[in-house]
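Good morning N.,

You mentioned wanting to compare the apo and holo forms, so I went ahead and generated the holo version with adenosine-5'-diphosphate. This is what I fed in:
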Amino acid sequence: MPEESRFLILLGPPMSGKGTQAARLSQLFGIPQVSSGDLFRDNIKNQTNLGLEAKKYIDRGDLVPDEVTIGMVKERLHREDCLGGALLDGFPRTIPQAEALDDILAGVGVSLSAVISVAVPEDVLVERASGRRICRNCGQSYHLKFDPPKESGICDEDGGELYQREDDKPETVRNRFAVYQAQTSPLIEFYRARGILHEVNGDQLIDEVADDILQVVNAL
Ligand code: ADP
Ligand code: ADP
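and this is what came out, ligand included:
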């Protein structure tokens, strides 16, 4: 594994912009975006056993059990394209997942470079949720108002169809916020205690958030 490997985590509540920022940084740094949500949705689309199992939890807005999630992400991180690093988006979401990630990275002789916590007030998150659309092919996020595609209903990247995620319905989104508070937000203190947490204001224009994240990464 090259010494300059860069493993970054984007941490934040649903709708904070993790996927949007991870996609940009991934292009900029030439390292893959590893999104646990996208991996689950690919498995559901392909009707794998893992997808069928995960769907029960995702439809309710609950977390998929750690052992299933960790196994899936571990397999992804062990692929060749992650040798130079990865941008983790949506993983880890629990303390056991964070501990498992340490083991996975230690197993290939690297450690986390930084954790970027994207903070956004809850009323802003709720407003973003109703307008999110994602590409069926590549998972790219758009927003009807804040980040529309060039052509309505079509992904700029690959021409894929844009759709609204079933779990972006208001009642499921509410549960996802509660799950974030209970199970994921403790990771902020977990990584702060390690001295690798960097906080960024996610309640700005997409380009402004991207600039702030770049400043953090360039200063590492
Ligand atoms: P969000 O837009 O809320 O960040 P994601 O696409 O990351 O959504 O995740 C969608 C759903 O997939 C989650 O609500 C959860 O059910 C499941 N999921 C994604 N990542 C994880 C994870 N690390 N651990 C457990 N479940 C996960
Ligand atoms: P997450 O992966 O954290 O759930 P996304 O990147 O999918 O979040 O963004 C959630 C929604 O908000 C999407 O519709 C996206 O286009 C939009 N969005 C992302 N960042 C911003 C921003 N800074 N301002 C306004 N809307 C944003």
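The beta strands are 6-11, 33-35, 85-89, 114-119, 132-135, 141-143, 162-163, 197-201.

Happy to go through it together on a call whenever suits you.

Best,
F.
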